[in-house]
Amino acid sequence: LAFFLETGHASLAREALGGRQVLAEAHIPADLRRREREAQARVERAARALAKARRRRVHTRVQAARTERDAARQALREVMERIEGEVRQDSELLYADVESLGSIRATLGPKQACVLYGLFEAKALALRITAAEARLVDLGPVAPIRTTLQAVRDAAQGKGASSAASARARSMLWEPLGLGAFEQVLVSPDGALCATPPALFVPAGVDVLYLPSATWHVRHRSRPRAPATRILALGDPAYGGRLPRLEASRAEVQAVGDDVLLGDQATEAGLRATLRTQKRWRAVHLACHGIVDAERPGLSHLALTPGPGGDGELLALDVHRLHVPADLVVLSACDSGLGRYVRGTGMLGLARAFLSAGGSQVLCSLWQVDDEATATLMRSFYEHWRGGQGMNAAAALRAAQAHVRTRDRTTVATLRGPSGAPAVGERPWSDPYYWAGWVVWGTP
User: Fold this and answer.
1) What local confidence, expressed as pLDDT, does residue 281 receive?
2) How far apart are CA 83 and CA 187, in angstroms?
3) Pairwise CA distance, residues 73 & 263, whole Å
4) d(CA 53, CA 172)
5) Which residues contact 250 (CB under 8 A, 6 or more apart)?
6) What is the Cα–Cα distance from 120 to 192, expressed in whole angstroms?
7) Nearest to 123 by CA among 139, 109, 107
8) What's the pLDDT at 72?
9) What is the mean pLDDT of each run of 10 residues along the chain (444 residues)?
């Protein structure tokens, strides 16, 4: 089950992003791609020679052909190992394999747990992993869980009347796991869970990070990282009428950024050039519109200012080809954590692309967020994450959500909800729509 949850249909993930060739061009240096092709061709030649020798039943030729085949396979393995060591983050999309349960357990501290969810055709299961043990938990029939998760999202976005859906989701998905003693839980979600923020079904006081997989966590938790202090922030792109202006994002970016790109400077070329000025960034903060293509997640994009060499659309496929060395990437944009879900790989889209490009963690949204509430949440997040308290990203997000939830909104009468939701000029920020739709992807 662990193997299935971890790898699932990895080939579907590759195809969803445009095929292995697209990923290889994004990740593997040209010299290594050439060596891989040559090594693969050698393996194929050796296999044909061995088959021919066996047909002729000449023992000495069979032995020689087998020796050459084994040498060719070893040469290919060496190239693959070098590629896996150099392609930054997403080698599992190129060569899908998984870590053992023992390796996963060895990464967990006494107050940490990891949960791999599986929402299958008829039944829902969870693999609960701690440093001490790994055990399977039967969560029951999957149909009521899917119905409840949809009700949770609908209620949070003002499209449903019952806030009791979150309590039902907690009783179905969280309480059976018996995680009351754990302070940090790493969750590899499945299906509709990928689009459901943990703030809506996990009890307060627990820090939750979403993972593409437990294998991803094992392989990326201890990557060497250069010290980083500066924050690159981009916001308030000049859309020229093609999209609504995000006015609150200007103050948001100015409040959190050390190197700032605003208005006409918020172009793809400007972002690329500024990224190269530091070996590593403490954070890369992007406050703009996010456009999701669920069928072709590689075409999901961030809307920037059009400029020389760019049409203002930073595609997820373009991000895979970028180098974004950052402790944290913040996608302060609508729907920036959504995309296309593929079992064993997670949600493919912008968030996964930035993990691939070098971001250790990505903070993103799971629905159409409000401009002003988001600006307030982000300022609070950075105060907790970067300030004297030095909280981890999941804890800082939880604190920022509490800050927004308790703010007095009586002085603002122009606030509007998401598309399809009722006008909410008097809706307080305590409503989950304003604060709950955020999640941190990545490993602590």
Assistant:
1) 95
2) 28
3) 53
4) 60
5) 235, 236, 262, 263
6) 11
7) 139
8) 84
9) 53 41 57 80 83 80 86 76 55 57 91 92 92 94 95 81 82 96 93 90 93 83 78 94 89 94 95 95 94 82 86 86 91 80 64 88 91 90 82 94 78 40 55 91 89
Q: What is the distance between the alpha carbons of residues 320 and 221, in angstroms, rounded to a whole number?
A: 20
Q: Which long-range contacts (CB under 8 A, 24 or more apart) does 223-230 make?
A: 223/360, 225/280, 225/327, 225/360, 226/279, 226/280, 226/325, 227/280, 228/278, 228/279, 228/280, 228/281, 228/282, 228/325, 228/326, 228/327, 229/282, 230/258, 230/259, 230/278, 230/281, 230/282
Task: List the structure tokens of 36.
Answer: 């891989």
Is the separation of the CB atoms in 147 and 115 below 8 Å?
no
Distances (CA, A) of 220 to 164, 166, 233: 37, 32, 25
Beta pairing partners, 340? 348
Predicted local confidence at residue 317, as pLDDT: 82
Q: Which two tokens stand for residue 196?
A: 């459901």
Residue 229 has, within 13 A of its CA and on its CB side, a CA count of 0
Tokens representing 187 are 């969750």
Q: Kindly give, in sequence order, each residue whose CB lies less than 8 Å from that of residue 122, ignoring residues fewer than 6 positions away.
A: 141, 142, 143
**Residue 305 pLDDT:** 94
What was the pLDDT predicted at 420? Answer: 39
Are 361 and 442 spatial neighbours (Cβ–Cβ below 8 Å)?
Answer: yes
Q: How far apart, in whole angstroms, are the C-alpha atoms of residue 181 and residue 209? A: 17
pLDDT, residue 393, reads 94
Whole-angstrom Cα distance, residue 431 to residue 165? 14
**DSSP letter string over 53-107?**
HHHHT-HHHHHHHHHHHHHHHHHHHHHHHHHHHHSTT-HHHHS-----HHHHHHT
Q: Identify the sign of the CA torsion 408, 414, 420, 422.
A: positive
